[in-house]
Amino acid sequence: MNQALMDKIESEQLRAEPLEFNVGDIVKVHTRVKEGGKERVQVFQGIVIARRGRGLNATFTVRRISYGQGVERVFPVNSPNVEKVTVERRGKVRRAKLNYLRERIGKRAMLVKERK
What we know:
By secondary structure, the chain is mainly beta.
């Protein structure tokens, strides 16, 4: 298929307002979770260590430290289950992927300079 045609089809399914955050930011991701017949909103807070893809395939990875263990979650940008993403703190980084944070322990694992 032609790429222009694919982009036209995908544009109907994209998020109406784009998510405004970058790699290095500390964000809260509000996701809808269905448990049985009920639906609730769950919040996952952490640092954005990667963004990849474009269009419908775009994803971002959020990492946090939970009880001394590193936990990463990959969220699709255009998923209807991702209700909203709020930026808690802007980070200043010089890389597109922050994989080096995986090897750090304790407070250093979340250490990124704050953007002013």
